[in-house]
Amino acid sequence: GAVVSQHPSRVICKSGTSVKIECRSLDFQATTMFWYRQFPKQSLMLMATSNEGSKATYEQGVEKDKFLINHASLTLSTLTVTSAHPEDSSFYICSVAGLAGDTRYEQYFGPGTRLTVT
Amino acid sequence: DAKTTQPNSMESNEEEPVHLPCNHSTISGTDYIHWYRQLPSQGPEYVIHGLTSNVNNRMASLAIAEDRKSSTLILHRATLRDAAVYYCILRDGRGAGKSTFGDGTTLTVKP
């Protein structure tokens, strides 16, 4: 299966600053990537679908100006949390969809990034 | 998006089979049934998926009801490493194939 990495694995930032999280597909050309957020003891919540070379599609209730997604290449998508606040503290996970989102194929998930905003 | 319903938690003894149920009564004809599991502070791991027929792989088996409104993930011999949260999800057959996660089942394996 595809190998997905995320960087950083953990980040602590001050309130009001911006944080960038990278998601890389190491051995798979991903035309579609997904970004999830997970709060403690809760399930994953889909934030947005990232398409290479085009604008991301955000889920209802997710502020696109706050969570900037860039998918400039087939192997890299970035999520930037702008003007972070303590309520943005969460576990952010990206995933790669097999063959441009073809649901016949499985998703591969990154190891996640733990964001703590102080 | 079609929703899935799973029990909040289940327990199993080590080396015994485990049957994890999932209801998805509003499944559409093109939705694939996927199972993933997640350990604490890690990303989900793919387990198995299927459309209509039962599926087997090295990790588990997936039994799909004839009407596709429910499915069961079968771990043939549970080990302590199988303790995790198991998610049953339906991948949208239209568009980008995004996945909506439910609450999952927390599996505890007792030695």
Please give a structural write-up.
The complex is a heterodimer of chains A (118) and B (111). Chain A is 0% helix and 51% strand. Chain A has strands spanning 4-7, 10-13, 19-25, 32-38, 45-51, 57-58, 67-73, 76-81, 90-97, 107-109, 113-117. In chain A, a hairpin with a 2-residue loop joins strand 7 (67-73) and strand 8 (76-81). Chain A starts with a strand and ends with a strand. The mean pLDDT of chain A is 90.
Q: Return the structural class of chain A.
A: mainly beta
Shape designation of chain A: globular
The helix-strand sequence of chain A is EEEEEEEEEEE
Proportion of beta-strand residues of chain A:
over 45%
- Assembly form of the protein: heterodimer
Tell me what portion of residues of chain B adopts beta-strand conformation.
over 45%
| Rg of chain A, Cα atoms, Å | 13 Å
Count every helix of chain B, treating DSSP H or I runs of 4 or more residues as helices. Answer: 0
- Structure annotation, total helices of chain A: 0
CA radius of gyration of chain B? 13 Å
Please tell me the overall pLDDT of chain A.
90
The helical percent of chain B reads under 10%
Q: Helical residue percent of chain A?
A: under 10%
What is the average of the pLDDT values of chain B? 92
The termini of chain A sit apart by 37 Å
What is the number of strand segments of chain A?
A: 11
Q: What is the first-to-last residue Cα distance of chain B?
A: 38 Å
Low-confidence stretches of chain B: none
Question: How would you describe this structure in keywords?
Answer:
heterodimer, A: about 120 residues, mainly beta, 11 strands, globular, B: about 110 residues, 4-stranded antiparallel beta sheet
SSE map:
The complex is a heterodimer of chains A (118) and B (111).
Chain A: E1 4-7, E2 10-13, E3 19-25, E4 32-38, E5 45-51, E6 57-58, E7 67-73, E8 76-81, E9 90-97, E10 107-109, E11 113-117
Parallel strand pairs in A: 2-11
Antiparallel strand pairs in A: 1-3, 3-8, 4-5, 4-9, 5-6, 7-8, 9-10, 9-11
Chain B: E1 9-13, E2 18-23, E3 32-38, E4 45-50, E5 55-56, E6 61-64, E7 70-75, E8 84-91, E9 105-110
Parallel strand pairs in B: 1-9
Antiparallel strand pairs in B: 2-7, 3-4, 3-8, 5-6, 6-7, 8-9
